Fold each of these.
Amino acid sequence: MGFFSDIGKKTSETTSKIARETKLKMKINENKGKITDIYEVIGKKVYEKHIREESIRIEEDLNEECSKLDELSKEIEDARIEILKLNQKKLCNSCSAEIENNAQFCSKCGQKQEPEQPTVKEAALEKLENAEISPDKKEEAEAVKEDLKEEIEASAGQEESN
């Protein structure tokens, strides 16, 4: 039964990862649509000023739209980084190319990469997953693993919203 249980667990994890990635990609596309709409608003304001032969003062005339663009761009970048994490990749510290998490050097620019330090909860989860657990404690260990996974996901969600 352990074999089928492992397959079920892996399938569940994969499905969860795919669902999370799809949700993030949808959010990225939604934000890109909002950015396009804001560009249109900016273009209209600029053109109206041109027609009226008024000068354009970006700080005064377009500050609100530019702030929205900044916010949406940050949300897109945060989602992109989370997708990379789901696929066990990261961005090069130097050139921002996509590279494997465990890469010691960037395949694009050759820059040496500093390994990312896992959070305390991520390290605890890894230790728990690799530990030998006695059969009478297996159920309790699985509950702790699930709690840790939920807390890690919640922390990632909070970072995303900040």
Note: Residues 117-162 form one domain.
Amino acid sequence: MENKGTKFLVIILIILILIAGGLMAYKIIKNKDKSETQEVSENENVENILTAEIEEKKINIFKGNDRPIAVMIDNHNLAWPQAGLNKAYMVYEIIVEGGETRLMALFKGQNVDKIGPVRSSRHYFIDYVMENDAIYAHYGWSPLAQSDISSYGINNINGISESTSVFWRVKDKSAPHNAVTSTEALLKSAKSKGYKTTSNKESILNYVTDEVKLEEGQSATTVTIPHSTLQKVRYEYDEENKVYKRYARNKSQNDWDTGYAVTTKNIIITFCDNYNLNDADNVGRQGLKNIGTFNGYYITNGKAIKIKCTKEARNLQTKYVDLDGNEIDVNDGNTWVNICPTNANVNFN
């Protein structure tokens, strides 16, 4: 009987040991699973944070594969105010006849209901159309611009030959300073002509997400650019919003519809000379000596540095480098490129 009792106790003890071991193993496995689940969860959280940081650091001003649209904008004082300039990622200002300047605004992936007033093309603007791989919208053209558009096979939309659904005239300005368009109308016209509306061409400018402060630059809270005796441009730095407000002929330039000031994050100045063309019309149209390497400035956040601007051919992208030959970093924001004569007395304050 004692042997049977002892055996029974031993069996019970073994069973209890097995149960205890099983419970312990279960807890270990459960804790391990919990730990692994927690680790996976933590890893996912880290990945989500990193992804969010990457998303946050993406360039906003130049993104996606929408093909840019370049629109010629009237800059005569009777055309002021203009519409759509604040939604352009890049605006070129270059002299035309009579000491006036004309603007070419580039839009990418933007829905802009009103752009204008739209004016006619000049042949040297085509160089900047090509280097941006843009669809070119204008209302009329000079003889040389017409010839070059044909020679270079530029995808263009000419308001003179378009319907009033693509370009239309408004009543609050007088002709020829009252033709306007929209990105939607231009894209619809481009598609009907069989133009490609996507592009993989990289940006001309090296945009960066970290703020460019130009620590070694000279002070540039006010920048004055005399394109001619008639057209003097001034940019005033708004320190609170970190943008420059634009003035022309001592008048603040504001948006036609919103009334907001026309502003820019970046300014590029390129010094290259214009000259009189001897064309059949003899109205003082201009040419531009823009092939080669030219002096210039890059201006942002209240500072300016000297740069070199090199364009090796009409259809090649302009390279903007510092005086050590390094491509300049440009703030993620819109840019005005002011192309002015080499003897222009540009002033910084």
Note: The first helix runs from residue 2 to 56.
Amino acid sequence: MQLKEKNLLVVLGPTASGKTTLGVNLADRFGGEIISADSRQVYRGLDIGAGKDLDEYLLAGKKIPYHLIDVAELDTVYSVFDFQQQFYQTFEALIDKRVMPVMVGGSGLYVEAVLEGYQMVAVPENKQLREELAGLNKAELESKLRSLKSDLHNTTDLVSRETLLRAIEIAVFSHGRAPEPAPEIKALVLGTRFERAELRKRIEERLAQRLEIGLIEEVEGLRAQGVSFERLDSLGLEYRFVADLIQKKINSRDELFEKLSAAIAKFAKRQLSWFRRMERRGIEIHWIEQASFEEACKVVELNC
């Protein structure tokens, strides 16, 4: 089923707001495939903490195809440019098959890179530039990046020395270069939303479940594989806080739950702020209360 005057269905929303379940059910109903827009689910090995929940892609024995999950190794830095280019390739392949692409995710920067058609170029590693930057500390690298990008939105560029170096490399290379042409995106955007207290309850219940099924053990396994604490910190939230537990910066499982659930709730608030900013910039979001499948179907059918 093709959308009238649209070629992409988007399901966005804050963490724990039922995006994946809704997106998978919509893909099943309207003959689509999922394109994940999650900045951590791209990495192999990040399963529980990243909330891949791959069993959700199986409906009554039928597997709903998904894309851009488990496409990168943890020892690489997967950029917004990487996501945008792989999204375009997947999008065009689905359109060619007359399959509706359904982008699902809460990484606002990834979603916006597609909906607003961020102008980016492929950037090779610049060994000379990296040698010139080798003597700068993290604060000096951040100052350098901000001098190159006054409109810096991607705060993930600031989390580690490697992400800062790559961001500077991209900013220097991109100056004055034209990006490759992008496909025309005509999106119908749905947003999942819950009342604040109910969303907080969902966050806590989901975190309790993830701890029960092995979140701490997953992070311990990553450490055993040689993943550094700095890298875990750069991955944020679950990986950062469990790493703090392992390093005894957090003293107990109960303290971990308290601090991490509060941090996730704050993250959800920031996500909603990002989505409101998208609306102010002209992107229409049809908000679906409590991720209602029936209500979402009505919105989609009005555009078919």
Note: Residues 218 and 290 are 30 Å apart (CA to CA).
Amino acid sequence: MAASEAETKRVAVVDIGTISCRLLITGGGGPVVREMRITRTGEGLRDTGSISAAAIERVTAALSAFAQIIDSDGSVETRTAVATSAARDAANRDELFAAASAGLGVEPRLLSGEEEARLSFAGAVAGLDHLGAVLVIDIGGGSTEFAIGSTADGIERAMSVDTGAARVTSEFLESDPPHAAELSAALSVIELHLDDVTREMPEIADALSSSGLILGVGGTITTMAAVEIGLIEYDRDHVHGFDLERAAAEDVFRTLATEAAEDRRHNPGLHPDRVDLIVGGACVLVEIMRHYDIENIRVSENDLLDALAAELQ
């Protein structure tokens, strides 16, 4: 029998991503706390191979704020942090981790792409009742993870590719709004990554069959869903479980990609700090749906943070 919320340990988990840092506090019978700060951790990576000093300062400030929230909770027994794509690529990862440790009080653990995919899968499928294959797609800032498995047997195969909202934006989308040639180049390179996924993960065909379920996690797809819904204020409950249809995703993509940033920021559902990054993320999402002929993706707000918390409890 699974332990009740009151019987579980109260834990705090932090994800240091390429675009944002996120906090989840859960368990122990207390309220669930979720916080997010846009830190643009991957700033500077494309040009220098290192994370900028300004980005490290933003991460430190975010984690210091998280530490205060954790301490004020008063009942957190365990805290942990993980880092993903930006930290994997950064030549100055040790500098980032030292600053993160100072801010949060624990040293982050670097996740490989496959570990990130495994945790995203576990978080997304927890509590689901689905008998067929499940494909979880996690579009991040610097990478996108694909994980296949089932709710009964867990993850079967996972793969991470180096494409994501921030990476596509910095490498291809220089104009405001992006020129058609820039968008075309971005989509072409994303397609090459997807060719790798198809070749390395033949099991993906099962998830794409009529009995398969496709789940999408991460800031790009939750933002695309929020824009499609037209949320004035972000509401996790409205986004979680929303079926984002391909036609709707294409429509949102066309709208966002053809607007200048100053016009784009007025779209309900679009966080101000994602205005310059969402088109890059939308490129990844729509190319995935085109490449695999996906008609809809179910949006999940549960991801690697939820899986990490469950492991600690």
Note: The chain has a mean pLDDT of 95.
